[in-house]
Design brief:
By secondary structure, this protein is an alpha+beta fold. It has a domain of 91 residues. Helix content is 25%, strand content 17%. It contains 6 helices and 13 strands. The protein has a 3-stranded antiparallel β-sheet with strand order 2-4-3, with no helix packed on it. It has a two-stranded antiparallel ribbon with strand order 1-13. It has a two-stranded parallel sheet with strand order 5-6. The longest helix has 15 residues.
C-alpha cells in the first residue's frame, strides 16, 4: 500500500521548483550593492583617468569601490543601476568633468539619485531621499522649517495655488509659503532659508545685522567657498589643503585633488 506514496515522493524530487531560475543563466552582477560598486569602479577608471592621474588600474578600482560604497545607500536598488553607471563612465571618459558630471560622481546627482529601495513607504516619515523608494519615483518631500518629511511622488502645484499638502511642491521658479509664491529678490529679499531664494542665490546673514538674512548671489567661478551650496555651479572643490574654490569643470591631472579618489 505504500508503493504509490513512495513513487509520488520520487516524482516530486525530479520536478523543477516553480520559482527556480535557469541554472545556466549567470547571476546579475548589479543585483547587490557590492557588485554595483565593482561596476562603478570599472566605469570610473578609464584609460584617460589612469593616464591623467598617473594611476594604476587596480589601485584606482579599489579606491573607487570604496568611494561608491560610501555614496550608495544601504537600501540599494538595481532598477536604475545601468543608467547611473553609464553616466559615471561618460563623466570620466575624456578626463574633463563638468559641474553636472561632478554632481554625478561626487553626490549621486541624476540619474544616480534613484538607487534606493528605501526603508519607508508612500506617506511614511523620512529625513532624506534615500529613505524612500527613489527607484520607483518617490522622494522625501520636506516642508519649510521641518526636519522630517514624507515619502511621496511629488505633486507639483502651480503659482499662487495652495501648497500645504504633505506631498505638494511648487513649480519651478516658486517656493511654498502656504501658497506658491515667487522667490525673494536678490540682495533685497529678506529670507529665512535657501528655499526662499532663487537657485543661483542663497540666504546669508547681513554683515550689518547678523539677525537679518538676505538672498544673495552664490559665489562665482574661482571664488572661495566652504560648501557646494556657496557656489552658483553647486561644486566647491579643494584647491589646497586649506582652501576651496567654486568650479564648473575640472581637467584631471596629477596635481588635481580629485585624482586622490582615483588612485
Amino acid at each position: 500500500m505504500k508503493k504509490p506514496l513512495i513513487a509520488l515522493f520520487a516524482l516530486t524530487l525530479t520536478l523543477p521548483l516553480g520559482c527556480s531560475s535557469d541554472p545556466d543563466e549567470p547571476p546579475n552582477p548589479l543585483a547587490t550593492r557590492d557588485g554595483f560598486c565593482e561596476a562603478w569602479a570599472d566605469s570610473a577608471c578609464t584609460e584617460k583617468v589612469l593616464d591623467y592621474c598617473t594611476a594604476q588600474e587596480d589601485d584606482c578600482e579599489a579606491t573607487q569601490k570604496e568611494v561608491c560604497l560610501d555614496l550608495v545607500p544601504r537600501s540599494y536598488s538595481s532598477v536604475n543601476a545601468e543608467s547611473c553607471l553609464g553616466a559615471v563612465r561618460a563623466a570620466y571618459e575624456d578626463g574633463d568633468l563638468s559641474a553636472e558630471e561632478l554632481g554625478v560622481v561626487l553626490h549621486l546627482a541624476a540619474p544616480c539619485n534613484t538607487l534606493s529601495s528605501g526603508t519607508s513607504g508612500d506617506g511614511d516619515d523620512c529625513s532624506k531621499d534615500s529613505d524612500c523608494n527613489t527607484a520607483d519615483g518617490f522622494m522625501c518631500v520636506i516642508k519649510k522649517g521641518a526636519a522630517m518629511g514624507v515619502c511621496a511622488e511629488p505633486e507639483v502645484v502651480e503659482r499662487a495655488e495652495d501648497c500645504t499638502g504633505a506631498k505638494q511642491v511648487c513649480e519651478e521658479g516658486y517656493y511654498c509659503n502656504d501658497n506658491c509664491v515667487a522667490y525673494k529678490k536678490t540682495d533685497t529679499g529678506v529670507c529665512e532659508g535657501d528655499y526662499q531664494c532663487k537657485p543661483t542665490d542663497h540666504c546669508v546673514p547681513s554683515a550689518e545685522d547678523p539677525e537679518v538674512s538676505y538672498c544673495v548671489e552664490r559665489s562665482d567661478l574661482g571664488e572661495a567657498c566652504t560648501a557646494d551650496s556657496d557656489c552658483a555651479s553647486d561644486v566647491c572643490l579643494p584647491e589646497t589643503e586649506t582652501e576651496s574654490v567654486c568650479v564648473n569643470t575640472i581637467r584631471l591631472g596629477r596635481n588635481e585633488p580629485l585624482c586622490a579618489n582615483l588612485k
